[in-house]
């Protein structure tokens, strides 16, 4: 297995990119879908922003170092990764906050309709943001299982809000078909790309998507709590109004007017002053993903997950796979169900194989292909088999739950 892995690694067109990331010794990192690895260029860039741009340039750096343009500059770099135009994307705030802004904007564009349709088991924050709007009387939440989403679309639905690649199972929604189905009923569509952006090719404009949000700290390697991004289709930029009408979304923030007037473009999605350190780190991660290219990244992550499954099966590990088995229907991850998923995950982490656990019984392994080798798959499968065979996961220490799982 290791032999075969090494042959695959030698022929891997992305093999040199591993060197561009800090991957700790002795760690097989299968959690890049939760927090991407540190690009080696990030500390130097942050040092420069802190010491030169902040320390020396001070307030002048808003112009001289281009700080004020960072949200749109990074947005324009994310755009081609998700099939958008450069002026349709902006990097700002968290995914949760951007959801609030764009769900609200969509509801206001469909007067007389209040329903936001989603699926049960969508990422919690997506559903909670709709709850918050419901408590204010602005939205009605409707959930339908993924097979019945199209049936649940009717003339009451203002917005269809879905996560493109499911965070637990990795299952991919048919973005083009569902967007079309929603539009046929007069509804708008918002896609959460947190597990898609930087992991697989997405074509928002070709699918005629209306809105999208996505995360900066997963496949974009922007660092813990990195700013997220928001997409508004060009045709909606004039009509959409998001409710967090902060001064940075104003048409002329430095006119210091008493009255709000939205910026005509995607800048309207901004609220307050952008976090420059976070954006500077995010830009390094985005540049690296753009350099490698999402097509190549997805092709390799598919090959890695296929190889991981083969290695598991050759070692006789037969677990309940909850991810789709058709490669083109699954994102860059594999998830397995096991009643002792938490303890097994902890036992693997103790061996340096870092995947994660998702309540109540899911073991999730992400394949961020820029820094993973086929050799890592073979080794991770060996550890997995050994943890199960030895029963070492049954030790007490592996059952204690930490605050973040
Ligand atoms: C990770 C993730 C988020 C994260 O939202 P934050 O506001 O950054 O905490 C949102 N939605 C999905 C689908 C995610 O996977």
Automatic annotation (TrEMBL):
<feature type="binding site">
    <location>
        <position position="217"/>
    </location>
    <ligand>
        <name>pyridoxal 5'-phosphate</name>
    </ligand>
</feature>
<dbReference type="InterPro" id="IPR010111">
    <property type="entry name" value="Kynureninase"/>
</dbReference>
<keyword id="KW-0378">Hydrolase</keyword>
<comment type="function">
    <text>Catalyzes the cleavage of L-kynurenine (L-Kyn) and L-3-hydroxykynurenine (L-3OHKyn) into anthranilic acid (AA) and 3-hydroxyanthranilic acid (3-OHAA), respectively.</text>
</comment>
<keyword id="KW-0663">Pyridoxal phosphate</keyword>
<feature type="binding site">
    <location>
        <position position="96"/>
    </location>
    <ligand>
        <name>pyridoxal 5'-phosphate</name>
    </ligand>
</feature>
<comment type="pathway">
    <text>Cofactor biosynthesis; NAD(+) biosynthesis; quinolinate from L-kynurenine: step 2/3.</text>
</comment>
<dbReference type="GO" id="GO:0030429">
    <property type="term" value="F:kynureninase activity"/>
</dbReference>
<comment type="pathway">
    <text>Amino-acid degradation; L-kynurenine degradation; L-alanine and anthranilate from L-kynurenine: step 1/1.</text>
</comment>
<feature type="binding site">
    <location>
        <position position="247"/>
    </location>
    <ligand>
        <name>pyridoxal 5'-phosphate</name>
    </ligand>
</feature>
<feature type="binding site">
    <location>
        <position position="195"/>
    </location>
    <ligand>
        <name>pyridoxal 5'-phosphate</name>
    </ligand>
</feature>
<feature type="binding site">
    <location>
        <position position="192"/>
    </location>
    <ligand>
        <name>pyridoxal 5'-phosphate</name>
    </ligand>
</feature>
<feature type="binding site">
    <location>
        <position position="95"/>
    </location>
    <ligand>
        <name>pyridoxal 5'-phosphate</name>
    </ligand>
</feature>
<protein>
    <recommendedName>
        <fullName>Kynureninase</fullName>
        <ecNumber>3.7.1.3</ecNumber>
    </recommendedName>
</protein>
<dbReference type="InterPro" id="IPR015421">
    <property type="entry name" value="PyrdxlP-dep_Trfase_major"/>
</dbReference>
<dbReference type="InterPro" id="IPR015422">
    <property type="entry name" value="PyrdxlP-dep_Trfase_small"/>
</dbReference>
<dbReference type="InterPro" id="IPR015424">
    <property type="entry name" value="PyrdxlP-dep_Trfase"/>
</dbReference>
<feature type="modified residue" description="N6-(pyridoxal phosphate)lysine">
    <location>
        <position position="218"/>
    </location>
</feature>
<feature type="binding site">
    <location>
        <position position="273"/>
    </location>
    <ligand>
        <name>pyridoxal 5'-phosphate</name>
    </ligand>
</feature>
<comment type="subunit">
    <text>Homodimer.</text>
</comment>
<keyword id="KW-0662">Pyridine nucleotide biosynthesis</keyword>
<comment type="similarity">
    <text>Belongs to the kynureninase family.</text>
</comment>
<feature type="binding site">
    <location>
        <position position="163"/>
    </location>
    <ligand>
        <name>pyridoxal 5'-phosphate</name>
    </ligand>
</feature>
<dbReference type="Pfam" id="PF22580">
    <property type="entry name" value="KYNU_C"/>
</dbReference>
<feature type="binding site">
    <location>
        <begin position="123"/>
        <end position="126"/>
    </location>
    <ligand>
        <name>pyridoxal 5'-phosphate</name>
    </ligand>
</feature>
